[in-house]
Amino acid sequence: LHVRSRRQRQMCIRDRLITGANRGIGLALATLALKRGDKVIAGCRNLGSAPELSALQKNYSEHCSIIELDVVDEQSLENAASSLREPVDLLVCNAGVQNGYSGMHGEENTMAAFEKVLVTNVASPFFTTRAFLPHLRESSGAAKVAVISSLMGSQAHMAANAYAYRASKAGANNIAVTLSHELASENIAVATYHPGWVRTDMGGPNGDISPAESAAGLLDRFDELSMEQSGLFINYNGDKLQL
Q: How far apart are alpha carbons 138 and 81 in whole angstroms?
């Protein structure tokens, strides 16, 4: 069964658009997807500051293309979508920011910081999906949208810190659920995913798993995503999570 699934992948190379592909989980997702034979459209805000992504594209020039886009700039998203000439089978809304882990009186909890975190983590999955919806509609199969969220956005997560980040990930979950309802008639599945506590710049050095481990689990979950799972919040290991 394992061999057959691998052959099926090789026979039907999928086009995956991954935002925030220049570092962390996004870069790990792009790397692993390319290694297994998928086509990857890697989105990043500034190619000039993405040497690892540039090197990856050179190593997989036939299957990897890079598209510059800023997920908090609506015009940048529209320009990127207009420049794309191929369908998108899977859109991974991965770009995100954190502003710290303090409590209510933490110095990072400013109105400007809240605005940046909420726009990036909540609004950008909506605007990114809307911008690339025509390409999702052109998919030869059932198109999918995967929003990278966090367990910290679950209402079941008991904590008393990181207000902006937690609120933003709860909002991202809600955006994905609403998108799943609107896009159901077009057979486009939408779900949110907890990548685990990952050792990245955002997750810190004490995380439980590496970016590669997270990416491996996430790619398996994306493969499994169907209309039956649309609207769910799913852990990288396959467990269903409470929104």
A: 13
Q: What is the pLDDT along the chain (243 residues), one digit of tens a residue?
A: 333 344 444 334 589 999 999 999 999 999 999 999 999 999 999 999 999 999 999 999 999 999 999 999 999 999 999 999 999 999 999 999 999 999 999 999 999 999 999 999 999 999 999 999 999 999 988 999 999 999 999 999 998 999 999 999 999 999 999 999 999 999 999 999 999 999 988 888 888 899 999 999 999 999 999 999 999 999 999 999 999
Cα separations in angstroms, 196 against 24, 133, 165, 179, 227: 13, 28, 15, 23, 23
Whether 185 and 142 have beta carbons less than 8 Å apart is answered as: no
Query: What distance separates the 2 farthest-apart alpha carbons in the chain?
Result: 55
Q: H or E stretch including 92? A: strand 90-93
Residues 6+ apart with CB under 8 A from 168: 96, 117, 118, 120, 121, 122, 153
CA dist 148 and 96 (Å) reads 8
Please, what is the end-to-end C-alpha distance for the chain in angstroms? 33
**Whether 91 contacts 15, CB under 8 Å:** no
Instruction: Report which of 70, 79, 60 is spatially closest to residue 16, judged by C-alpha positions.
Output: 60
Contact 37, 100 (CB under 8 A): no
Decide if 132 contacts 17 (C-beta within 8 A): yes
> What is the spatial distance between Cα 209 and Cα 196, in angstroms, rounded to a whole number?
7
| Residue among 40, 120, 129 nearest 77 (CA) | 129
